Amino acid sequence: MPTTITLTGATSISLAGINARTLTQVGGYAVQVIRDRVAEALNANDAPARAYSSRGPIYIPVYGVGRTKAGKTRSKTNLGGVFGFSKRDIKVSKQTLGRGRKTIRYDNYTAFKRALGKSGNRDLQLSGRMLNAIAIVEQAATAVTIGFTRQEEALKAAGNQRRDPWFAFSPRDQAKIRDFAAARIGLTSSK
Questions:
Q1: Are both 96 and 41 inside the same structural domain?
Q2: Does residue 101 or residue 183 have the better pLDDT?
Q3: Sign of the CA dihedral 148, 149, 155, 157?
Q4: Are residues 142 and 180 in the same domain?
Q5: d(Cα 26, Cα 47) in Å, to the nearest integer?
Q6: Looking at the 3D structure of the chain, how many domains does it have?
Q7: Which residues pair with 14 in a beta bridge?
């Protein structure tokens, strides 16, 4: 019976002759292959990912300034996953406060990422939480399913998937995963 590696709601790769331990290794490798491709700002077709929107301006909140609707002071933990700046971040990015000293203004999202010293390309990396949430979420004797371990990250991924498909095995990903699996099978059969 062939073994299968499946992305949640996406494509699958069938492989033959793999035991459960090797399947786990191949599944972990498949996760890393997807992360590496996205870090290179490539989409699911191995083409350059779409640029971020040029709409703007955008305003990024400053931590510890202002209050939420519930009356709590804004902080890293209660911003609900929204990025915000600490006083140290403001000094590092050499930005000035705007709109009542509660936010920092950027022309667009690309400018915001560049101010943080990150790539302005669509590499889907700001905090790293979304890509780090990709993991094997289900495993059986003949199949592994790769998905997201946290619902919040799955929702962000779905939004990015609508803009430019990325959560799938690209042709290059499939070749890398098949080569890795073949090497693993060769190693396990020689022992």
A1: no
A2: 183
A3: negative
A4: yes
A5: 24
A6: 2
A7: 4
pLDDT bucket at 78, cuts 50 / 70 / 90: very low
**66 and 44 in a common domain:** no
Could you tell me if 110 and 82 are in contact, meaning their C-beta atoms sit under 8 angstroms apart?
A: no
Residue matched to tokens 């510890």? 64
Pairing of strands 3-7, 58-61: unpaired
6 membership: H or E segment, kind and range: strand 3-7
pTM, two decimal places: 0.76
Q: Do residues 169 and 13 make contact, with C-beta atoms less than 8 angstroms apart?
A: yes
Task: Compute the distance between CA of residue 175 and CA of residue 181 in angstroms, rounded to an integer.
Answer: 10
State the residue for tokens 């400018």.
111
92 with 130, same domain: the answer is: no
Q: Look-up: residue for tokens 């902080």?
A: 75
Residue 23: other Cβ atoms inside 10 A: 23
Residue bearing the bigger pLDDT, 17 or 153: 153
